Predict the 3D structure of the following.
Amino acid sequence: MDKGTGSGPGLLLIAPAPVVDHGQGRLTLDVKFTDGMRRQAALWAGLTGGKAAVVLWRGTQGMPFGAEYAQSDLGFDLILLPQGAPLPDDLLAGRAVVAASADMPGVWDLPQACATAGAALVYTIEYTLQTRLQIVGLDASRGVLRKGWSALWTLRQERQRRRAFRRADAVQANGFPAFEAYRGLNADTLLYLDSRIGAGMLATGAEMQARAARLQAGAALRLVHSGRLEPMKGAQDLLPVARALATRGVDFTLDIFGTGSLAPVIAAGMAEPLLAGRVRLHDPVDFDTVLVPHLRTRADLFLSCHRQADPSCTYLESMGCGLPVAGYDNAMWQALMQASGAGWAVPLGDIGALAAQVAALAAAPDRVLAAGQRAWAYASAHDFETEFALRMQHMAAVLQRRQGGEPA
């Protein structure tokens, strides 16, 4: 097995990202995951002179935001395991740093394994226990008994997760809720905000001025939403909010980007006389070349009905395009809103309150524009390059500390 190490210390990442192996060196990977891995590999090489490798498990299904790649062109080493297979016993030999996602099971024995192998261990985490239990409760495919069993399994996993965090060299927490939930378990816990909005993708001054001129001239408020159209993501509330706005006589449009089990329901509902011509549903589109340009030039406000506290990339990505956010006060958006001043929050699941907030903003474009400027400024300080550099510098510092202060 290729250890993925060059002249410097090797970095091994263990991740739950989907992959479909087509054979002959061709595979389908999630685009955002691949972009992030490429960035991490380049930064790690620059900091330490070492190579990065990632462990993934083969799957059989496609993915809505995937693309086909040649394995030789990835820019990082890829270790593919059979679906459901445990980590190989020799996987850690020769590794200097192991970064493992604690959002997946099967990684709780790594503290001892890394200590034996002489590798530093950094866990990454996104979901809190509360979010995991919410996901179980919202799973319509499971009955009450299966949900109960899943909740018990989730609680057992949480105990193992917390024990492993205490024994790791460090933890990297994506988003405010995860950081608050776990920082007390490990003295070296880093907060980061994941997104794929790079410095070169941020809204330009001219685009921000064009949006301001349009809104100040009394044009319709252009709402946008992107993401998985699933109940656990709150997509079932998009059309009710739109109906409430239309009933109030608000001049608006709503563009929805994404796919999921609720897409047919949304497609049928947007044909209603009240919503016809106002709501448009788009298939998943390329992030860099289609979605970001749309957000920068054809939208004014991001509508979020997200009920969970997971650190959705969508917040920062929309903010970097100059869009403020109007959404529910889940723990992630509440904290991000307070830190950035980039929007508004209403009680979780309160469709009427969300519609009322958007209606008030439609009548006060200067408020939208001011929050959009704050959104842009905050996202600019936490862009893709900055956050990934922060993470890799942290891992390099963990390695240096483990090596007794010697440069990595």
Summary: The first strand starts at residue 11 and ends at 14. The two ends are 24 Å apart (CA to CA).
